[in-house]
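FYI - complex with beta-D-galactopyranuronic acid, inputs then prediction.
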Amino acid sequence: MKVMRVLRAAALATAALVPWLPGAGQAQEWRGWNIHAADYPNGRGLDRFGELVMQRTNNRIRMRTYHSAQLGQQDEAIQQMRLGSIDFANFNLSPFNNLAPTTQVVTLPFLFRDVAHSHRAIDGIAGEEIAKDLEQIGIIALSWFDAGARSIYTTRPVRTPADLRGMKIRVQTSDLWIDLMRALGANPTPLPFGEVFTSLQSGVIDGAENNWPSYESTRHFEVARYFTTTEHSNVPEVLAVSQQRWRRLNEQERNILRDAAREAAAFQRQLWAERERQSRQVVERAGVTVIEVADRRPWAELMAPVYQKYTGSNPRLSSLVQRIRELP
Ligand code: GTR
């Protein structure tokens, strides 16, 4: 009996030393959210992430991505991730503008000089700051997807900011976007992505703004036939997981997810560059009028009040803008 007691005590002592391995050996089912179709670069990036995680955890973490906004529009999906009912996703950073202040910085118009500059910022100082803000609201950022440059497309030709005056232009649900569009002289109309096509078709709005792949894949180009290359914002995207899940992973699992997310982002960026070219070709062949903006200065000059409002009295945000500008 005494021997048994000693053995039991020893077992308990050993158990106390072994770190708690949450759900080790137990299969978990993760639900992923994607706004785009499965074959869009972001959908393929998310699927790659899922496959890598499944392989490297020997199917202990099973990832299933629900494409085409099956689990709701972006704002709802963000709330669901915060509550833990969506486990991983790819989000554009603008819908976080009112929740995570540093996401406003990378949304700011005409901030990045080119794609390489935006990568250096988001893979470095900007990404670090944004990840801290997102963690505060229950979202863990693992890597960053490309989203190219956003331009304005409309049902009537727009060559100068004056042409935009009074036009109803759809924006994402973010105060910064509302101010940005207002500063250009337009009438900003916040709407979920999924409502843009019918709103263009029925004349509720006169235009929207997005990158080439979204303009093409959503077929917005069929109803808004003029694309003006303003390239006013290069807001990037995040591959994120819910903190509720993250908290229960051990360090080894976290590393698997971090590596898989980085690899998925590298893959998405490759696909992205190719898709931008293809999408532009598709819409040009379909007869869209592309209005090239040769000089962006008149557009950029109108943005001064937006910078003033969002960074002027906020040292953290203005210093981040400064540090991004100083990047090579
Ligand atoms: C796309 C982006 C989506 C969504 C959409 C929009 O470029 O990938 O996540 O933000 O724009 O304008 O709502």
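Residues 144 and 313 are 28 Å apart (CA to CA). The longest helix spans residues 251-285.
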